[in-house]
Amino acid sequence: MALLQISEPGMSAAPHQHRLAVGIDLGTTNSLVATVRSGMSTVLQDDHGHALLPSVVRYAINGEVIVGHEAQAQQSADPSNTISSVKRFMGRSLNDITDRAHIPYRFVAGHETPTTKMLQIETRAGLKSPVEISAEILKTLKLRAEKSLGGNLVGAVITVPAYFDDAQRQATKDAARLAGINVLRLLNEPTAAAVAYGLDNASEGTFVIYDLGGGTFDISILRLSKGVFEVLATNGDSALGGDDFDHRIYCWILDKVRESSRNFSPLNEEDTRLLLTKARQAKEWLTDNFEAQIVCRLSNNTLVDVTLTAPQFVEITQHLVTKTLSPTRKAMRDADLSIDEINGVVLVGGATRMPHIRHAVEEYFQQEPLTNLDPDKVVALGAAIQANILAGNKNDDDLLLLDVTPLSLGLETMGGLVEKVIQRNSTLPIARAQEFTTYQNGQTAMSIHVVQGERELVTDCRSLARFTLRGIPPMAAGAARIRVTFTVDADGLLSVSAREQSTGVEAHIEVKPSYGLTEEEIANMLKASYASAEADKKARMLNEARVSAGAIIQSVNLALKNDGHLINNAEQQAIRDEVARLEAVAQADDAHAINQAVEKLNQVTEAFAAARMNASVSLALSGKNLEDIKL
Amino acid sequence: MSNTDYFQLFALPKQYAIDAKQLESNYRKIQSTSHPDRFVNASAADKLASMQLATLSNEAYSTLKNPASRAKYLLEQQGIDAVAESNTALPMDFLMQQMEWREQLEDSKQAKDVEALEKLYIELRAEARSMERELCGLLDTEQDYAAATELTRKLIFVDKVCADIQQAIEYLD
Asked: Looking at the domain assignment, is residue A226 inside a domain?
């Protein structure tokens, strides 16, 4: 494996300097930031010693944006300008929000995009998209991290529910960009939790991560062996979480109040927020107590004074607990596992503190769930470990995550049906090709509609992108052979290309789902907050080009020294010539020319890189065989 | 790299009977060495090579792990496309059997009888396992590719029914 060790290019000259990277758990209820310091993953606290940042954003009268505890405290007083649980609206249109009546915000259908509209919320600071609101939370965490670590961040790993679709993931990435954060990777929350658990307990075997957060439910099954974490299956419900339990209590309180007072008028926004807060407090109280008394006075002077017992709470929310078991069974079937093959069940998310959740999980898996790490922090801790690796702070014998596509990806075919090209739970990176043909005689173009989801009809799946392959030679229907290739890289980014086999005409798209913001919108938002001088930009580009030139020269020279024997002398010479050319160009002040020379050197070394990759794989495999002989 | 032999990639003998443990452990070794996360700061050429090998080994692993696709892959190496449209013939008794399974599936689905679906699933998995054992003999010992092709097609049919049962269970769940 020594063959593959390549010195870090990095922005800084010192090769062993620690690059600052963080893991961010952008949660429905609370958000956290963690980092790896001296080999230990640690959650970073604010000036008051708080680790959890309530995911609440308030647009105050004086134009200030307040995030966290202070905003949460003002929620009942200023409900429509204080946004909580914004994660539930990420990458969603107005039609996706079914329980709008109980949410005290003024929703507005967003602007038209080719397929649909992302909702916005009306506040006194104007219309705000969930992306912008989430960016405020991320900015606060970024500031906390930079203050605490004393430097600029190289990047962050941000966690998302495993069951988030591409639109929701893209919205999360957009929010990070808006907050000025370089996203190293979006990591699935249960996977992050598994990383923290696996490393902490040095476990081996098959584990289930049951993650019930404020607004989302995820179930993941992972196999841990010799530092490799392989996700076997993942499932969930991106609209089921602790908030729904609050909501059930809220409805129960309303029913009780209606029973006792005759002329009960509809609630205003303040009262709705107040009762939801009371409901949440009652839920948390019932974790350790038999009954919760809910007392408050509404704005019309109605006194609310009711008592909810633990058995009553179980009764009104049991259907929500049952609802988590259906995705659990699906994941178990997808992984082709039976209950007795599970070595441990890990509970993640604040909502798993509810005793009846624990009982249900224990009963289903016939074992007591593991809870030795704080369910609120475990996701951020795991994300920080992965961020540290992706920032290049660790060497290659450390842990490796093999993640999967959470949802199937496919194409629209005749009759509005979906042809799946990549099945859900396929390990990344993945490439799959499928052949299609024309439907009509003389057809010269083919429209390609990329969708995500498990259902058979296009209308039941989420639309990700559309593009057209033109220039197909006119042929009889069914004669053209069009090969469509789906590629998903390790970051989960999907690209789709289509190629007509006889003529070689091609079309290609990198899928950016239609729910995200457009490039232009993001650029405008960024422009509003940062104005960067043209000269600065030029100097930075030149500097970046030189740094990457230096890095590639160093790594190619090292590779030639260690593995030059894998290619012949002429090939070695060709690479050396290109290195010399790049060295010369890097002396001059032309960033574009440097980048071109880097690109050229990359091209020339492609075959060499592939040969080295094969050699190192053979070495890894033969290493194993030797071990076997010794045993 | 696209014509790399999958068995060779995992350092396994080219035969139907497979050491699943060895396959899994070698797959993990290859991913450990080649996965793009190991090359975050590497040159574009190294990143490309890593992406290609990691993608190839994922594809190869899923092909060899699944008994039907493994048989199909071995037949392809003999120049036989087991799922080609010209390869449609299946014996009448198997077709009858298949129709029977489909009817049971539909009936249980209509009756929303998950238990019956699960029972049918277990029955079909057992059927598939016995076909896999038979394939070992046909492919590895007798090298009777014609018989192996027919059996592979049967196995693919059984897998398809199994997938549909799973989907029905999922739908009812």
From this structure: no
Torsion of CA A590, A595, A598, A600, to 10 degrees: -100
Terminal alpha carbon distance of chain B = 43
- Whichever domain contains A114, its CATH number is 3.30.420.40
Nearest CA-CA partner of A610 in B4, B25, B6, B145: B4
**Residues A185, A40 share a domain:** yes
Select from B10, B28, B30, B83 the residue whose CB has the most chain A CBs within 10 Å, as the one to mutate to test that interface.
B28
Residue A528 lies inside a defined structural domain of this protein: no
pTM confidence score: 0.80
Minimum CA–CA partner of A330 in chain B: B170
Range of the domain at A490: 409-519
C-beta atoms of B53 and A617 within 8 A = yes
Q: Are residues A505 and A545 in the same domain?
A: no
pLDDT of B88: 67
- Residue A69 CB burial class (10 angstroms; 0-12, 13-18, ≥19): middle
What are the catalytic residues of A? 25, 87, 189, 211
φ, ψ for residue B41, nearest 5 deg? -105, 15
Whether residues A487 and A550 fall in one domain: no
Concatenated DSSP letters of A109-176? -----SS----EEEETTEEE-HHHHHHHHHHHHHHHHHHHHTS--SEEEEEE-TT--HHHHHHHHHHH
Contact yes or no for B48 and A556 at CB 8 A: no
Q: Does A326 sit within 8 Å of B44, measured CB to CB?
A: no
Q: What is the mean pLDDT of residues B2-26?
A: 92
pLDDT digits 0-9 by tens, B94-105: 888 989 999 999
Q: How far is A58 from chain B (nearest CA, A)?
A: 38
Whether residues A63 and A182 share a domain: the answer is yes
Q: What are the chain A neighbours of B34 within 8 Å (beta carbons)?
A: 613, 616-617
Q: How far is CA A94 from CA A106, A451, A459, B145, in A?
A: 11, 20, 17, 57
The CATH number given to whatever domain includes residue A252 is: 3.90.640.10
Quick check: B37 and A391 CB within 8 A?
no
What string of DSSP letters covers A344-366? EEEEESGGGGSHHHHHHHHHHHT
Q: Which residues of A touch B169 (CB under 8 A)?
A: 333
- Rounded to the nearest angstrom, the minimum Cα separation between B42 and chain A is 7
**Is the pLDDT assigned to residue A8 strictly greater than 50?**
no
Residue A324 domain-assigned (yes or no): no
- Predicted confidence (pLDDT) per residue in A212-231, tens digit: 988 889 999 999 888 889 99
pLDDT at B93 over 80: yes
Q: Do B30 and A621 touch (CB under 8 A)?
A: yes
**CATH code for the domain in which residue A595 is found:** 1.20.1270.10
Domains and CATH numbers, chain B: 6-65 (1.10.287.110), 92-172 (1.20.1280.20)
Instruction: Check whether residue A451 and residue A595 sit in a common domain.
Output: no
